[in-house]
Design brief:
Layout (H helix, E strand, L loop, with lengths): L5 H19 L4 E2 L1 H8 L3 H9 L5 E2 L3 E3 H12 L5 E6 L3 H7 L9 E8 L12 E3 L3 H4 L6 E4 L5 H10 L4 E4 L12 E4 L2 H14 L2
Parallel strand pairs: 4-5, 4-7, 5-6, 7-8, 8-9
Antiparallel strand pairs: 1-3, 2-3
Helix pairs in contact: 1-4, 2-3
Length: 203
């Protein structure tokens, strides 16, 4: 596989989501111009993105949807059955549970952990006490979404001890993670600041 630019890597999940939905709807083949309508990306961009991981289709014939899904899974290392846990089931955690953009892409949130699980009702997944993290950690789980306002470092330490290798961080506390644990920081305020700067610079 050729070196894939970051911009292309960011588009792959969109392709995968569309392809898996197409498969669920009974489709077996797709043309690049048809896929372009689903994902709102130019057909030329799609063909270029696909070419980076091999010869995936024939001109005039289209792409085999299952073959595309298998290729992305095998060559890009994407696990569609990834078990994800949510840490913190407050307002933000609830919003993330209701946000299904990753459907058909990387897996699903299978459970949540909170300091006060008894107050976390009417959720779509089981909620356990954060103190019982080791006991209820799903087997094979590697990814955690962090939505807690305090005690972050202690929680991260516990997560890493339980085998977590990737953290999506929505907290507002600084923390460190051991080598080999990947962290993605989601800072809405910084994103807004960047957008304001970009908008003002265009005036």
């Amino acid at each position: 596989m050729k070196t894939v630019p970051n911009a292309t890597l960011q588009r792959y999940p969109l392709y995968l989501k569309a392809l898996r939905r197409l498969k669920d709807n009974g489709r077996s083949k797709i043309m690049s111009n048809e896929l372009a309508e689903y994902v709102n990306i130019k057909p030329t961009t799609i063909r270029r993105d696909f070419s980076l991981i091999g010869s995936l289709g024939k001109q005039g014939y289209g792409y085999d949807i299952q073959y595309l899904i298998d290729t992305f899974s095998n060559q890009l290392g994407m696990n569609f059955d990834e078990k994800i846990i949510l840490i913190g089931a407050g307002n933000l955690g609830r919003a993330i549970l209701n946000y299904n953009r990753w459907n058909n892409v990387v897996g699903e949130i299978v459970c949540a952990f909170d300091k006060e699980p008894d107050k976390c009702r009417d959720l779509t997944v089981p909620v356990y006490n954060i103190d019982d993290l080791k006991e209820y950690m799903p087997e094979g789980c590697r990814i955690a979404i962090l939505c807690i306002p305090s005690g972050v470092q202690e929680t991260v330490d516990s997560l890493c001890q339980c085998g977590i290798k990737g953290i999506v961080d929505f907290s507002n506390e600084h923390f460190t993670a051991p080598e080999g644990v990947h962290v993605r920081y989601i800072d809405v305020v910084s994103s807004i600041q960047e957008l304001v700067f970009e908008t003002n610079s265009m005036q």
